[in-house]
Write a structure and sequence with these properties.
The structure is a homodimer of 140-residue chains. Chain A is mostly helical and 140 residues long. The first copy, chain A, contains 5 helices and 2 strands. Chain A has a two-stranded antiparallel sheet.
Chain lengths: 140, 140
């Protein structure tokens, strides 16, 4: 039960964009360099295409192009970044939409439902603005 | 971020043993039949060997052999069953022991630490006795 590597890398990249928000687009090669992911450039390219398609980041083409957050860091949550990559979080089969386990009266399902709500609530309450490396005054 | 199939099957099997606790060993073929996992008998054999090695269940050999819980359902938690299979739960790389991500001052790690504690706390608070299909009076 662990966050996927793709979602983990998406979070790392999104935090770079939150750190640099308002300073123009950041090239993906620079995002990778900052996070020590230069060897994973091709993988990050795929991840950022998904983030752009899901409306979490915006791709800006051209010589000075790169990526920016689609919305300000204070309006983008950790949950949005993670679910853009993984789809709706599901801690167990019964938590998928629709559920992938249909056992009637399952005594364990309420436990997973409770956990699922807690995890989504915590991740949904954390904005990228709260997670940047920038001094608090510089956050937007 | 989803429970492994092995841990999910371990939980299903353990609940059968909780349902039948005090009624003697339950053959694995019967555990599989009850949970609709007869096609996964070979897989369940491996899972139950791990559960036995980790002290969650006890294997009883012989003609009337099978498995029982090593401790009463009220003394066996969902967390113990899951961690017997998956090892200590780790929602992200930084939550492994030792951590598999060493970024200094990571702003996201406290979020994962908080979530990790919540998930382990909920799973550790649920005993198999609370999750059996038996009437409450019959639980031990």
């Amino acid at each position: 039960m662990q966050l996927s590597k793709a979602a983990e890398y998406a979070v790392r990249g999104a935090i770079v964009l939150a750190d640099r928000y308002g300073q123009g687009p950041v090239p993906l090669v620079e995002i990778c360099r900052v996070r020590g992911l230069s060897k994973s450039f091709a993988y990050m390219t795929k991840i950022f295409r998904i983030l752009a398609r899901r409306g979490v980041v915006r791709a800006i083409r051209g010589k000075n192009g790169g990526y920016t957050l689609a919305r300000p860091p204070a309006k983008t949550t950790l949950l949005e970044v993670i679910e853009a990559i993984e789809g709706r979080l599901a801690l167990n089969l019964c938590q998928h939409t629709p559920p992938q386990c249909h056992e009637p009266n399952c005594p364990v399902r309420p436990v997973w439902t409770q956990l699922q709500e807690q995890v989504r609530s915590v991740l949904g309450s954390k904005t990228l603005a709260q997670l940047t490396h920038r001094p608090r005054r510089a956050r937007r």
